[in-house]
Each structure stands twice: as C-alpha cells, then as structure tokens.
Amino acid sequence: MNTLLIIDGLNLVRRIHAAMGTRVDMDALTIRISTACNKLIRFHGPSHVIIVWDGASESWRKQLYADYKKGRKPMPEDLAAALPALKAQLTKEGINSLDAASEADDVIATLATKMVNHQGQAIIVSTDRGFAQLTHPAIRQWDHFSQAFLDVAQLEKKLGVERSQLLDFIALSGDSGNRVPGIPGIGPKSAAELLRAYKTLKNVYNSLHMLGAKQAKKLAEGKDMARLSYKLAKLLTDMPLEVNLSQFRAPFNPN
To answer: Tell me: the pLDDT tens digits for 58-101?
Structure first.
C-alpha cells in the first residue's frame, strides 16, 4: 500500500525557527529542517513524501471574512528570505515541494483525501488541530514536536465533544487561533454542552424552543455567524491539483 507523508512546511519550519532563538543562523536552520524531514521519512517509511508551503495570495477565507487570522505575527524577514534556498536544498535531497496559492491546509487536505480514495494512506505532519476533521481511518496526523500521532481520545476529552462534531463545535464557539468568530456569548463549555445534548448543529437549531430564552436568543441572532464560522473552519478536499504521485517518491528506502 502506498503511503504519502505530507509535511505542513511552514508549520514545521516556523516552530523550529522560533525554538532556535532570536538570532538564527540560516545554514544551521537548513540543516535542522533537513534533519527533521529525513528523520520523518526514516521513522514513517513512506512510499512518497511531499512538503506543502503556504502561498502569498490572499486566501478565499480572508476574502470571505476580513478578520480571519487577523493579528498573527508575520513571518520573520530572515526566514522569508531563506525559504527559497531551503526549498532548493530539500529538492536536492529528493524531498519535493508543492506551493499552494494561498493556504497550505486545503492542499494538504486534498492530497490526503485523494490518497485514501485511491486505497493508499496519508500521514499529515502538523500541529494544526484543524486536520482532525479529516476522519478517514487511513489519514493520520503526526506531531513532530511531541513525536506522537494525534491522540483523538485526548482531543475529544479536552474539547468535550466527539471528533465528528469538531466543525459544529467551532461553528458555535469559534477558534481564537484563526480568529474564526463563532457565536457571541457561546463559549467552548456551552458549545460542548449543546452538542452533547443535541449531537449536531442542525439539531441545536431545531431545538431552540427547548433552551433557555437567553441562550436561544444568542443562537438565533448568531445563526449567520455560525454558518460563516463553519465554512471558514471546513477544509476543502477537492482542490484542483495538477500533480502526479510519481513526482513525490520518497528519496530513499528507510528500511
């Protein structure tokens, strides 16, 4: 069975860059990134590997909601300047890149989905919990920094909802990390309680008459915001990608 290792490029690189302190030697950074990628390949033994990078174009989410990801720190200038050389070095090592037009997340989700739809499996290397919405059993998420696969049970315990309810949960409570708004006045605790009781966002809205007047009013007034938040959080899995899997064969046999 083919296994595609998909590395969330900037998620990996920015975290390693930040861990190296304020004055980062770019040659040392390149070595660290190369070492990390090769370690991932040796550990997981994929048949194919691809590293996906965010692009410079404004994302459709930002066009839909201007405050999306507002306030995030821009990429450090030294890191931005070093990326072309870093990508070139990885290419020399047989680790090929794919540049998204804007956000890498939708490209990663599409690659993973296409892979499992063709009877393969995918491992996404990222700390972004948004990938947890990809519930196909052949898609797994690896955290390079904790050296562990996503612990679904732990995530569900932390949020208070089932994995399958993640998008409904964000629609209600928002996602502060990405500035997804959610419904004003409905926090994570309330969202979890509603979904435990009514299972889905649709059922919550069909049951407003069973809720307290104050909470029902918040939900009714925030319905459009919930719909927007759901759309912002949902990953696209059908992006048009003109790539061939053969372009991304793993550079060596880890076994």
So the answer is: 999 999 999 999 988 888 888 999 999 999 999 999 999 999 99
d(CA 165, CA 137): 16
pTM score: 0.94
pLDDT digit string, tens, across residues 210-241: 999 999 999 999 999 999 999 999 999 999 99
- Both 10 and 104 in a single domain? yes
- 201, containing H or E segment: helix 201-206
- Token pair for residue 63? 């066009």
User: 43-78 burial string, b = 16+ CB within 10 Å, else e?
Assistant: ebebbbbbbbbbeeeebbbbeebeebeeeeeeeeee
Q: Which domain holds residue 121?
A: 3-134+235-248
Going by their DSSP bridges, the two strands 139-143 and 121-125 should be labelled as: parallel
The answer on 162 and 127 residing in a single domain is no
Three-class SS of residue 72? coil
pLDDT recorded at residue 253? 59
Looking at the structure, tell me whether residues 9 and 129 fall in a common domain: yes
Which residues of the chain, if any, have pLDDT below 70?
Answer: 253-255
Encoded tokens for 191: 């969202």
- Residue 223 belongs to a domain with what CATH number? 1.10.150.20
Selection from 134, 32, 22 nearest residue 78 by Cα: 22
| Claim to verify: residue 17 and residue 58 sit in the same structural domain | yes
Same domain? 74 vs 162: no
Query: 3-state SS of 90-141?
Result: HHHCCCCEEECCCCHHHHHHHHHHHHHHCCCEEEEECCCHHHHHCCCCCEEE
Cα atoms in the Cβ-side hemisphere of radius 13 Å centred on 17:
19
